[in-house]
Amino acid sequence: MLAGEMYNAADPELTAARGHARDLCRRLNSLPHSEQIQRERIIRELFGHTGEEIWIETPFYCDYGANITLGRKVFFNFNCVVLDPAPVTIGSNVMFGPAVQIYTATHPIDPIARGTWREFARPVAIGSDVWVGGGAIINPGVSIGSRSVIGAGSVVTRDIPADVFAAGNPCRVIRRLDKPEHFA
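Predicted structure:
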């Protein structure tokens, strides 16, 4: 699965791993925000690696959690979903708007192969200092370069370079972000 080969998602070991992640998500999603220490413990147990200052508005859902690596200062707004049978690597200072979905899992195009109920996955990598607007969907195998912004509602089907604003369905580069913007 992690090597990008076809796998059986109904495999008992994979089913147990997803069950563990779902139990952790359920616990995280049911905790009041005042239980910050308990929230941090669950987040550290859920994800493969996390930096400091991770904030997740609940509900949050993922497949395995263990395949997700977070840098420092990562923020997930309400109702985000990460399907992570392949690695999902997220840099530092990254913000996800509400209802962002990150998919690594995919299925064969060929209907006969798809009928076997086997699937495969492609890793997703998101650089540092990235902002992904609400409702965006990031598809399997995509990389988003550091300091880029993905517009709300975008469907990211191919790699996005660093230092750009990209949006649309399919997501495409709208303009370069060569000069930092300063707000008064």
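Summary: The chain has three helices and 20 strands.
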